[in-house]
Design brief:
Structural class: alpha/beta
Bound molecules: 2-acetamido-2-deoxy-beta-D-glucopyranose
Low-confidence stretches: 1-20, 56-67
Strand order of the largest sheet: 2-1-3-5
Strand content: 5-15%
CATH topology of the domain at 115-314: Spore Coat Polysaccharide Biosynthesis Protein SpsA, Chain A
Number of strands: 9
Mean pLDDT: 88
Shape: globular
CATH architecture of the domain at 115-314: Alpha-Beta Complex
Order of helices and strands: HHHEHEHEEHEHHHEHEEEH
CATH class of the domain at 115-314: Alpha Beta
Number of helices: 11
């Protein structure tokens, strides 16, 4: 018992001594470890800095050749910035979308070979009955156009992967005829199309529109025009100036008030003006409500104030108002004959780049779904595609 106690007591002593020794050496050890880690860490950083330099050089060589992408962020090339979004769906709301779409390069010359495209923007409730005719129109001209479709939000299109309309629906909202929601849908189309930096011209179309000429002619006509085709005129009378509201002054005076077709073709500069607008939008929203049809006045008036020298003041889309009423004539199966097109092509002259021209319309409306079959039959002969 005593010896055990002794042993314990003896045992106690060395432990205590050890502890005292340890507590003396511990800070020293820690310092040694710390220095070791410091040196190691420093070494590793230097090595990795050299490695990264090496790998980044290698990385540049991989881009465009290998489908393998390194997990760390790749070096950006100009292609990263100019490549159009691979998917048109996004979850930006309109505020975010318009803001993003308003980005404009300040240096005007492109440091790469830019092939400018025409954005064809379809505003429809849902189906596109003229799609087979458009498919034929676009065939063989890949790289010179892009397509955007705005529908009711509940509508899902069913185009096959082979179609030019496949996955071209943009996030949409309800658009009501003659109301600001219609202009908002048009701005949404423009904003989505602006996200592709290659889009230079923007054409607004409906499901009842058809092309009147082949793609080569349409592309040449639009790309060589000095002006954008926004219909815009000063109309005396109840359906023109009569829709003006005095509360818009002095931002919009009566003499600035314009009317024109909803169906426009504009260039990139004007498209940006439309998406970035915060001056005219609230005014038109409040003071242009039915019987003021805002889609006939808002962009027309705003652009006539801001950039009158860039407007042709006429629309490229043929329409027949001769039957009277609030809506233009709709043409069906029985109307589609060669004479129908002769009537559109002949007997009209207009100004193109300040010169008289007999080619005034590139598109026509309104065509009923029943017109499709005779159109497909006549188009090689009459429309040139
Ligand atoms: C979009 O989201 C932003 C941020 O949440 C918000 O400030 C803005 O009001 C939203 N805009 C619309 C049109 O809902
Ligand atoms: C459309 O598609 C989405 C997602 O695929 C689905 O959730 C929705 O129910 C569909 N709507 C209709 C009207 O078919
Ligand atoms: C409208 O008229 C006022 C007063 O004459 C003028 O100050 C203003 O600049 C005009 N607005 C436009 C858009 O020309
Ligand atoms: C279009 O109309 C504006 C006035 O609103 C005018 O300044 C411009 O010169 C016209 N454009 C053409 C091509 O005539
Ligand atoms: C387009 O139409 C014009 C005139 O009709 C014709 O000369 C030209 O060859 C056509 N282009 C194509 C690619 O079919």
């Amino acid at each position: 018992m005593q010896s055990r106690l002794m042993a314990l007591e003896e045992g106690k002593n060395p432990t205590t001594t050890l502890r005292t020794n340890q507590s003396r050496t511990l800070p020293l050890r820690l310092l040694q470890w710390f220095s070791l880690f410091l040196v190691l860490g420093f070494g590793v950083s230097i090595v990795s800095m050299y490695m990264i330099r090496y790998f980044k050089v290698a990385n540049v060589a991989w881009i465009g050749q290998s489908p393998l992408r390194p997990c760390f962020e790749e070096l950006r090339t100009i292609e990263n910035w100019i490549r159009p979004p691979s998917n048109l769906l996004h979850i930006m709301n309109d505020t975010e979308l318009l803001w993003r779409a308003s980005f404009v390069p300040r240096i005007k010359s492109y440091p790469y070979e830019r092939v400018p495209k025409i954005a064809f923007m379809f505003l429809t409730k849902g189906p596109l009955p003229m799609a087979p005719l458009w498919e034929r129109f676009f065939k063989g001209h890949e790289g010179l156009y892009s397509i955007y479709v705005h529908t009711l939000p509940s509508y899902n299109d069913s185009f096959s992967p082979a179609s030019v309309f496949y996955k071209r629906q943009i996030p949409s909202q309800v658009a009501e005829w003659g109301r600001m929601s219609m202009c908002d849908a048009e701005r949404r189309l423009l904003a989505n199309a602006l996200l592709d930096i290659s889009n230079e011209w923007f054409v607004l179309l409906s499901e009842a529109c058809i092309p009147l000429h082949n793609f080569s002619i349409v592309y040449r006509y639009i790309s060589r025009s000095r002006y954008s085709f926004m219909g815009s005129f000063d109309e005396i009378g109840p359906y023109g100036r009569g829709r003006y509201n005095q509360n818009m002054a002095p931002t919009v005076n009566l003499s600035d008030w314009r009317k024109g077709s909803q169906w426009f073709e504009i260039n990139r500069e004007l498209a940006v003006k439309i998406v970035e607008d915060t001056t005219y939008h609230p005014l038109f929203k409040e003071f242009c409500q039915p019987a003021c049809y805002v889609d006939e006045h808002y962009f027309q008036t705003m652009l006539s104030i801001q950039t009158p020298h860039l407007l042709a003041n006429r629309s490229l889309t043929y329409v027949d108002w001769s039957r009277g009423g609030a809506h233009p004539a709709t043409f069906g199966k029985a109307d589609i004959k060669e004479e129908f097109f002769q009537k559109i092509f002949e007997g009209k002259t207009c100004l193109y780049n300040n010169q008289p021209s007999s080619l005034c319309f590139l598109f026509a409306r309104k065509l009923a779904p029943s017109a499709l079959d005779p159109l497909l039959e006549l188009s090689p002969k009459v429309l040139g595609f």
